[in-house]
User: Which sequence fits this backbone?
């Protein structure tokens, strides 16, 4: 496979390492119970919150907004959703805490074990659009054993901008061809491949719940395929 | 002590967490034996290499050099020292590897145990002038259990520039007063304190070897004093 010179694995996080949908749904339900909020479908709310993420990020990518952290973008979307779902009576502290639900996303069941195996052979780093604080807190929350926390924030370019992948390789002190991007999303891997990184696809068929079809087909342009992180570790000889 | 709101500890690394002098001396001796280099006092060489670090960094801090990583600054100093010590016959690969001796510095005996205790209560991050790759490789080498790797490189300002400390707090998503800088060097702590961080001094009397007096006196402007990292953990209730 010609992958002997890969030194570092960089990981997409939302959806690839952690289950944002299940976790945000749970956080919404918990808040609803605590505050007596009724009539909100928290699964739909989680999807809507996530759905607002890319458009808000694209405002930054196209220069319509200056550099803005995901924490702030999440809050912009949350404020709109609170109006849309007619959720009232939350204090500022409660909104801040609910917004930090994105720092408390649970890993998929195989993530910690698979990452631990991969760490024995490679440098393992996040490469997420989530900001550094979000990724650091999430790692502590879920026990994710990262060697390094890299973020779009580290280079002030959101994925899939080329600068995000090339900046990560530069920060890790290796050539782009010595980095393998790991993600459950093909657009992310395509952008990484286009600037010279190696790629690993991990299937996460349940990212969007039971009712939405997810593209988990193997592709001949992807270097390695994993059915989950344990399988990826096996396929990379870790 | 009013330190209840401290959420993150940021650590100076060279001298505070790791023994650069002993480690670089050992790497020099190893190279000397492998290449038959004689007549070099590798302890003196280590001191000279470290001695070239601050002047070269100050060229960046004062704008005489554009942003330049420590790996590159270390190499500039190394190239001068190889001439000065009349060390010839090294291939480019050998020079690259010797320069990476700074990625292979050994922790002080108490560092890993103390950091592990502190990690149970705080976010623990590097805040070093070493670049991200250097700090990441060093953590893997020495088993340092960081939650996050932050560097002057993360904000493109070397310590003791105020931006380095304030940028680290911003990346960690906390207020400056919620961050405690940990260092064996008072100038580093003074600069951190001046922009609102809390401070912890750790005594490293042997950083410069047995013959050089090191200032390890307690100061009333320092929030916490530790005789080593285990003692610091005890003094912080970890």
Assistant:
């Amino acid at each position: 496979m010609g992958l002997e010179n890969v030194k570092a694995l960089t990981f997409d996080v939302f959806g690839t390492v952690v289950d944002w949908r299940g976790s945000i749904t749970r956080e919404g339900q918990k808040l609803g119970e605590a505050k007596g909020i009724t009539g909100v479908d928290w699964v739909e709310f989680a999807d809507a919150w996530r759905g607002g993420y890319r458009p808000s990020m694209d405002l930054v990518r196209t220069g319509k907004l200056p550099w803005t952290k995901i924490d702030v973008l999440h809050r912009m979307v949350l404020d709109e959703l609170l109006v849309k779902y007619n959720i009232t009576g939350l204090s500022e502290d409660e909104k801040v805490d609910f917004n930090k639900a994105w720092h408390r996303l649970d890993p998929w069941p195989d993530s910690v074990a698979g990452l631990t195996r991969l760490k024995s052979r490679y440098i393992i780093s996040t490469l997420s659009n989530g900001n550094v604080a979000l990724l650091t807190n999430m790692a502590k929350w879920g026990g994710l054993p990262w060697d390094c926390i890299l973020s779009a924030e580290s280079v002030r370019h959101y994925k899939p901008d080329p600068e995000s992948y090339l900046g990560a390789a530069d920060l890790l002190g290796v050539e782009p061809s010595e980095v393998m991007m790991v993600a459950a999303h093909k657009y992310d891997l395509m952008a990484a491949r286009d600037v010279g990184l190696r790629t690993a696809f991990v299937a996460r068929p349940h990212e969007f719940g039971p009712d939405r079809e997810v593209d988990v087909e193997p592709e001949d342009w992807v270097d390695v395929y994993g059915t989950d992180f344990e399988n990826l570790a096996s396929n990379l000889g870790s």
Observations:
- Chain A is about 45% helix and 10% strand.
- The two ends of chain A are 15 Å apart (CA to CA).
